[in-house]
């Protein structure tokens, strides 16, 4: 598509490349959660591309275009569907960064509050406790709605978890922030499954939030601050850097773009290249653990940031099958469940509609259990579905 | 922003907005720049127009109210589904509004017994099949954008797809529509007897109004589907293979060719695992297992002899899906190869494909541009993708010039400027290059009669340009015909006189005898089309086709009685073979006729896919001489089965027979007749007849006898009948008790029937019976008088189209019984 955008620098290029390669064919529409639920062209990938182009060209004011830009979940299903190779994910991230300082003040405050709470385990726990005591705390309420009745006990991960038997590999694990608060068992299950398959795991103490939420929310500076910690924290002498939350994994894999044109770019690209989802790593390595004693019918839910952002779809399913389970894929597998980072905080109504829709499709599979590779999805789907929902690694752990 | 016309239009726009606020809540009436900007384009982004407002309709009443409000205030409107038109078909009009239909996306009714789906216009094409799948049915038209394009848009543009070769375009799969005309009048159009108003509405690019509801035909999922990929050293070799497949008498469901660039694009995006070859041919066969097996063997032989360098075959659904995903993503996928592209949609006669491709290559080289080719080879439908970089100065202009040259090439080769994407806004200036002035004039008159204010999808299809195309040859006979139409106040055409009720002139009506207009104009068996003068006897055509193993699959009736092609088209008559492949409307691709002004009008063409202009040939089907006098007709033809076999099954009663009929789903049944009370005649064609008849007998589960050879042919001899009816299995169930004692036979899976209504019984009686059953009847013989009986459709739309083609009312019409009574 033709454009006349004059925004320089690497992020400018990311935006203009994406806009230039969009041919407006509409193949993205049926996979876009907001278009599927609302049926409005501005709330579709190609509609947003038009708007971002118009904003960047100066023919439409930013403030007018913000509502549809904000309604995007960033699920990147459109990237999977796009035949023309439009890197929509890079476009929206860059555009949000471009937009953030130009937003109205009140909005920036709310967004900052969420962005400065969710990724920090201690602040999140605190907010959760306060939220329980004093319900309806304004802008944070939808976020607190995500919390279970009781938070699980803290269960910090060890610095090193040795391999059982012969060591086949040594990896570093990104522990995840919200995940540690909401469901520390996922981290432990990851360590156990890796260990049983001969993998030694280090959990660098000095690591922090991956920065994905900030990055996707347009807070590039905060994202870089968080990411720099990780650039320093993760060692070079491991076979891989493992993520077990799809959103975090995909965030780290975007470090290259985040630091484009910055002094840390090379280090960022190097780390990004070594990040791999635990399922993809185990699939590549090959399971040596015995098959499950109680085979289950597992509905596999594709987390957007695994399927669309990281293109990991088959690996988790292969692992579950290798472990002796039957795997089924629900209708509309490509459609987001509505969790999408901070989305269920910012756009609770659309998020709820998507959650119900996803639950309906999962229920229809008649599965015993739902597997997903992202804490956000687990939390979201559990609100609408009575069938147990577990992280893929937890199902593998249960054996 | 530039606004059209006078200040009054702006005022009208503001008054309209006030009116729209009463119809729509705020969140469904979009007027802010950031809300309407995303509607500026469809899938043709070189055109952008910002609408004044976008409404998101959720009920048909809202659509009708909106159209009425637009009409009241003189504001143009554009209907939009998913906005995937490649010709700018849903480009907004400045100063006008967009009526969004994508929320009207309910499948209202799915009837597995009658095999129809009734849907709202915003239903996504693929969702029809999704809804029908649980019943083993599917919706055949499959445009590449089927995952998102909507039925309303498919109908407006008579969309095609990869599988048109066997199944035909959208028009062959729409059985009825409810539509709102540009002035807000609501009409119902459907297939049946009498003029094919529905066929004229489909493909009208939104100029005739908006579809509110559509009844779609569903087909049983074939028992077997076999897909072959064959690689060739160059496009010419692949094209020759297509010709060889046709010459071998095979009728694949799809035949596609992709060149190196198109393959590269598909591999970059979808990764369908195509072989790395300079030219790729995809051939798909489907049908009953035994037939597919035989065809697969035949195809393998043809491919082996065609010089293919690499051949792969599969019947695995997942692999097939990926092969088609690659093919269907090819347009957008060239986004990987170049920043910009133009897609063209020309059609050429199948036998001139190789020539067309070579010339396109030369033209591209001269323009210094790369062209990727991906096309529906079986239909001669080319999709050259012109790659360019719009940032280079002059590149857009060079690409557009090349696109124009390619369209001119298609016209010069006897083809069409659009096979399936439509004229839209993109090819408006090319329509006058394809059609001569009398034809363009007839289309414009129809347009003016249907929408005098040009409110519906203004600016599409027609431009201000006049045609410089030389009119087709007119000999003395045709000139005499023109004079006769001009000279006589009321005229009635007559061919072989085999349907006296339709061709016997009443008082003050001058007969136009057409039997002198006979002869085959063009027939090339490899082309699978035949052109003949309208007065040519059906029998002559059938005999000629039979010599080449081909036929008109709809079995034109009354051939022995001397029926002519023109009469068959004008009466819209089809015999038992209509069951499998459709009727006259599904095989006519071109027609020349003298309209009511005495002009020779030529619609359609000689290519099997053609979306240029209004579908005048279809309008002629069943027109009973009321819209024009046919001079020449063009049909597509199919390979004929080498032999037939019939199973005669006896059900205890009508209900049992109707029920048993459904058990033939998934088998390749050529014809399916029902003789009340309970005899079914089920005809198979092709290989392994004995075994297939036995299988059919078991599936039917009724006492049955098999017939082959001469006794079999005798079963399908025409029964004497004076009335042909159009109905449905349910209609037959309602109608038949009232016909006790009247000789009759139902045909084409009880969707048609032949009734020998006694001359001495009042026609009113039959009229009422048909009306009560929702069926229509056409009287072919018997005493003079009205010929259309029972339920008829068309309403205001029919009146307007008729006025457009016959402004002075020269074509003396036959009234329906009801009209005659009222008079």
Record keyword descriptors for this entry.
heterodimer; A: 399 residues; alpha/beta; four-stranded parallel beta sheet; B: alpha+beta; seven-stranded antiparallel beta sheet; five-stranded antiparallel beta sheet; 33% helix
Rg of chain A computed from alpha carbons, rounded to a whole number of angstroms: 20 Å
> Mean pLDDT of chain A, nearest integer?
89
Number of helices of chain B: 29
| Class by alpha and beta content of chain A | alpha/beta
Q: Numbering strands along the chain, what is their spatial order in the largest sheet of chain B?
A: 15-12-14-13-17-18-16
Portion in beta strands of chain B: 15-25%
Number of helical segments with 4 or more residues of chain A: 23
Q: Give the helix/strand class of chain B.
A: alpha+beta
Level of helix content of chain B?
A: 25-40%
Flag low-confidence runs of chain A.
none
Strand content of chain A: 5-15%
Radius of gyration of chain B: 26 Å
Strands of chain B, total number: 36
Report the principal-axis shape of chain B: globular
Structure description:
The complex is a heterodimer of chains A (399) and B (823). By secondary structure, chain A is of the alpha/beta class. Chain A is built from 23 helices and nine strands. In chain A, β8 (369-372), α22 (375-384) and β9 form a beta-alpha-beta unit. In chain A, α1 crosses α6 (88-99) and α11 packs across α23. The longest helix of chain A has 16 residues, at 348-363. Chain A is globular and about 65 Å long. Chain B is an alpha+beta fold. Helix content of chain B is 33%, strand content 22%. Chain B contains 29 helices and 36 strands. Chain B has a seven-stranded antiparallel sheet, sandwiched between helices. Classes of the chains: A alpha/beta (399), B alpha+beta (823). Chains A and B meet through α3 and α4 of A and α2 and α12 of B.
């Amino acid at each position: 598509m033709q454009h006349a955008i004059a925004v320089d620098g690497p992020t400018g290029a990311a935006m203009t490349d994406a806009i230039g390669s969009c041919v407006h064919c509409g193949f993205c529409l049926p996979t876009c959660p907001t278009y599927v639920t609302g049926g409005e062209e501005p709330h579709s990938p190609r509609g947003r591309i038009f708007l971002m182009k118009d904003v960047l060209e100066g023919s439409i004011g930013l403030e007018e275009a913000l509502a549809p830009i904000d309604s995007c979940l960033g699920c990147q299903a459109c990237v999977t569907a796009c035949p023309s190779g439009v890197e929509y994910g890079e476009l929206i991230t860059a555009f949000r960064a471009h937009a953030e300082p130009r937003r109205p003040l009140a909005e920036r405050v709310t967004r900052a509050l969420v962005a400065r709470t969710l990724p920090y385990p201690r602040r999140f726990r605190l907010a959760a406790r306060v939220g329980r005591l004093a319900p309806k705390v304004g802008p944070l309420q939808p976020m607190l709605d995500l919390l279970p009745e009781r938070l699980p006990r803290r269960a910090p991960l060890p610095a090193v978890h040795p391999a059982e038997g012969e060591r086949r590999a040594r990896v570093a694990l990104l522990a995840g922030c919200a995940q540690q608060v909401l469901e520390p068992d996922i981290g432990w299950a990851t360590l156990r499954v890796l260990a049983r398959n001969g993998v030694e795991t280090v959990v660098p103490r000095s690591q922090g939030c991956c920065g994905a939420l900030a990055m996707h929310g347009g807070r590039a500076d905060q994202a870089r601050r968080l990411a720099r910690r990780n650039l320093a924290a993760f060692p070079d002498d491991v076979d891989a850097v493992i993520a077990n939350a799809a959103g975090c994994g995909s965030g780290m894999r975007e470090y290259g773009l985040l630091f484009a044109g910055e002094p840390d770019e090379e280090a960022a690209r190097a780390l990004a290249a070594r990040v791999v989802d635990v399922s993809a790593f185990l699939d590549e390595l090959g399971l040596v653990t015995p098959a499950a004693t109680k085979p289950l019918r597992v509905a596999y839910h594709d987390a957007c940031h695994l399927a669309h952002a990281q293109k990991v779809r088959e690996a988790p399913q292969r692992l579950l099958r290798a472990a002796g389970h039957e795997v089924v894929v629900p209708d509309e597998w490509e459609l987001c469940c509505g969790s999408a980072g901070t989305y269920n905080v910012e756009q609770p109504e659309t998020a709820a509609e998507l959650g119900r829709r996803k639950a309906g499709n999962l229920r229809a599979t008649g599965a015993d259990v739902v597997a997903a590779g992202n804490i956000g999805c687990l939390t979201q789907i559990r609100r609408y579905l009575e069938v147990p929902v577990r992280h893929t690694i937890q199902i593998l752990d249960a054996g | 922003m530039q606004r059209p016309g006078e200040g009054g239009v702006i005022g009208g726009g503001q008054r309209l907005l006030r009116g729209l606020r009463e119809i729509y809540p705020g969140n469904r009436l979009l007027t802010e720049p950031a809300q309407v900007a995303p509607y500026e384009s469809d899938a043709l982004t070189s055109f952008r127009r910002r609408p004044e407002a976008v409404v998101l309709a959720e009920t048909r009443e809202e659509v009708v109210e909106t159209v009425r409000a637009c009409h009241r205030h003189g504001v143009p409107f554009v209907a939009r589904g998913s906005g995937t038109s490649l010709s700018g078909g849903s480009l907004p009009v400045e100063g006008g509004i967009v009526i969004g239909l994508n929320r009207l996306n309910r499948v209202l009714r799915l009837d597995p017994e009658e095999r129809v789906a009734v849907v709202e216009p915003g239903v996504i094409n693929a969702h029809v099949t999704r809804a029908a799948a649980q019943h083993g049915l599917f919706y055949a038209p499959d445009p590449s954008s089927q995952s998102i394009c909507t039925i309303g848009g498919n109908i407006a543009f008579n969309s095609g797809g990869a599988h048109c070769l066997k199944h035909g375009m959208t028009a062959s799969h729409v059985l009825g529509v409810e539509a709102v005309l540009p002035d807000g009048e609501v009409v119902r159009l459907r297939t049946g007897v009498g003029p094919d108003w529905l066929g004229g509405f489909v493909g009208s690019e939104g100029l005739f109004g908006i579809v509110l509801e559509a009844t779609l035909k569903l087909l049983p999922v074939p028992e077997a589907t076999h897909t072959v990929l064959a690689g060739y050293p160059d496009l010419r070799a692949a094209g020759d293979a297509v010709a060889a497949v046709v010459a071998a008498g095979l009728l694949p469901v799809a035949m596609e060719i992709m060149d190196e660039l198109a393959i590269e694009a598909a591999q970059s995006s979808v990764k369908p695992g195509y072989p790395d070859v300079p030219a790729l041919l995809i051939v798909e066969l489907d049908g009953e297992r035994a037939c597919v097996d035989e065809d697969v063997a035949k195809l393998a032989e043809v491919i082996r002899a065609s010089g293919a360098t690499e051949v792969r075959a599969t019947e695995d659904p997942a692999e097939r899906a990926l092969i088609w995903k690659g093919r269907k993503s090819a347009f957008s996928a060239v986004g990987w190869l170049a920043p910009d592209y133009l897609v063209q949609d020309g059609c050429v006669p199948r036998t001139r494909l190789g020539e067309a491709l070579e010339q396109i290559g030369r033209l591209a080289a001269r323009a210094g541009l790369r062209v990727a080719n991906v096309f529906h080879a079986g239909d001669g439908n080319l999709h050259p993708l012109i790659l360019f970089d719009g940032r280079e100065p002059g590149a857009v202009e060079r690409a557009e010039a090349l696109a124009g040259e390619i369209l001119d090439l298609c016209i010069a080769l006897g083809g069409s400027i659009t096979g399936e994407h439509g004229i839209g806004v993109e090819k408006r200036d090319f329509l006058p290059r394809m059609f001569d002035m009398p034809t363009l004039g007839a289309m414009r008159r129809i347009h003016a009669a249907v929408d005098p204010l040009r409110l519906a999808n203004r600016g599409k299809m027609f431009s201000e340009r006049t045609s410089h195309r030389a009119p087709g040859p007119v000999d003395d006979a045709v000139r005499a015909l023109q004079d006769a139409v001009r000279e006589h106040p009321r005229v009635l055409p007559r061919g072989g006189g085999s349907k006296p009720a339709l061709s016997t002139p009443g008082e003050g009506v001058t007969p136009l005898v057409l039997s002198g207009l006979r002869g085959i104009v063009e027939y090339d068996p490899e082309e699978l089309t035949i052109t003949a003068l309208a007065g040519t006897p059906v029998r002559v055509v059938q005999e000629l086709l039979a010599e080449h193993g081909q036929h008109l699959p709809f079995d034109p009736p009354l051939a022995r009685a001397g029926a002519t092609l023109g009469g068959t088209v004008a009466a819209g008559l089809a015999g038992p073979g209509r069951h499998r492949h459709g009727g006259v409307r599904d095989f006519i691709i071109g027609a020349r006729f003298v309209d009511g002004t005495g002009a020779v009008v030529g619609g359609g063409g000689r290519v099997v896919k053609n979306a240029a202009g209004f579908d005048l040939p279809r309008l002629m089907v069943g027109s009973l001489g009321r819209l024009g006098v046919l001079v020449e007709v063009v049909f597509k033809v199919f390979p004929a089965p080498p032999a037939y076999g019939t199973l005669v099954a006896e059900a205890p009663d009508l209900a049992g027979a109707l029920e048993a009929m459904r058990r033939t789903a998934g088998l390749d049944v050529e014809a399916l007749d029902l003789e009340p009370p309970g005899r079914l005649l089920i005809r198979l064609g092709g290989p392994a007849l004995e075994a297939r008849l036995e299988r059919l007998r078991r599936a039917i589960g009724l006492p049955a006898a098999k017939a082959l050879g001469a006794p079999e042919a005798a079963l399908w001899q025409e029964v004497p009948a004076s009335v042909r009816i159009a109905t449905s299995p349910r209609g037959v169930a309602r109608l038949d008790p009232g016909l006790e004692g009247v000789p009759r036979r139902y045909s084409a899976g009880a969707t048609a029937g032949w009734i020998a209504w006694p001359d001495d019984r009042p026609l009113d009686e039959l009229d009422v019976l048909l009306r009560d059953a929702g069926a229509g009847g056409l009287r072919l013989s018997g005493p003079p008088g009205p010929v259309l009986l029972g339920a008829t459709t068309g309403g205001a739309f029919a009146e307007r189209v008729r006025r457009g083609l016959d402004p002075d009312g020269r074509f003396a019409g036959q009234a329906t019984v009801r009209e005659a009574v009222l008079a």
